[in-house]
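new request in #modeling-help
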Amino acid sequence: MTDLTLTYDLEAVRADFPILSEKHHDDVPLIYLDNAASSQKPLKVIEAIDTYYRTYNANVHRGVHKLSEQATKAYEDARIKIRRFINAGSKREIIFTRGTTEGINLVAQTWGRVNLGVGDVVLSTVMEHHSNIVPWQILAAEKGFTIKYIPILEDGTLDMGAYAALLRDNSVKLVVVVHVSNVLGTVNPVAEMIQQAHAAGALALVDGAQSIPHMPVDVKALDVDFFAFSGHKMIGPTGIGILYGKREHLEAMPPWMGGGDMIETVRLEGSTWNELPYKFEAGTPIIAGAIGLGYAVDYLSELGMDKIHAHEQTITAYALERLSEVPGLKLYGPDAAQKGAVAAFSFEGIHPHDLAQILDSGGIAVRAGHHCAMPLHTHLGIPATTRASFYLYNTTQEVDALIEGLYKSKKTFAL
Ligand SMILES: Cc1ncc(COP(=O)(O)O)c(C=O)c1O
């Protein structure tokens, strides 16, 4: 029997997202299964941005006029909403960034630049998105530390035995790990990993780009040192994201970008820095984006992250079952119980890009390629996969349409 406390009115939710009633290629309904790349936006978010520009557009923190006060309040209210959403201890721990990528680069260029050097190790994993590999590589080339990678087991989960062994080397200073893989869908045991990292004297940074839109996240309970995510994957606008950092770390870190708002005083001989979080928010911030993200968080909270998670688990389990019945299709990653709302696969005889194009002609938007996880694809021994990824508004009928589209593609290629 369905647990009614874990369901919501799917039709009503879909009606909140205007794009879902648009026709694709002018005549077919849009079936949007590319949510891991970016999510659609509800009217509430679109209208919040529109209202800001129409009625109280002004710069924040500087003006003494009413519009600026109104904009500042909305911008800071968004920060408070996000603090609550992830259960951070203080709004000073919530830094607005452009997204996950910028958040990770900020930590690399501030905490990393001060704390990492020759003889140190940053521990990462083979399943990371490029945004949690390349910033560390850039810094390692300059600072001379080593990056080591936790291997993946056959079932697409991390080799936790290897992790424990790698931690035994006392030179690990930082563990950087993706919460949910954007290809395999693997939900990594980050709470346990953070605990082990701390026991070994290392800090932990979690890439939350694919977890925070889909499941409840409590940074205090995780005891995570840094947690980065993007607004556009959680029904918010593009160009806005969050870096959460424990206050003690953020206080000790030097600023990254210099400019307006991040200073306390500027003299020609030198400058002093503003208090948190402004020390890390140089220049005019992404005001409309932050306000929009605040409304996105309202929407997700009202619906309930536990319900969203339950809905997605149902859809994903259904999709995995149906996909596994398609001849010639190979799925990657663990089974539904250990997986986020992502199904990446290869289809015998059809290149992922061709497959994505054929599906698109039928109104089905999926993604094909390496999904910014080239080392993972190298590990899997394939250059690319096709990826269907689900969100709070997807339906089992849309999964059926995907399966039908796969059979049609097979016929097109006369396989
Ligand atoms: C796991 C993961 N990390 C990081 C990113 C980067 O996010 P953004 O491009 O919004 O900075 C993505 C985006 O696809 C992702 O899936």
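bot summary: DSSP finds 14 helices and 17 strands in the chain.
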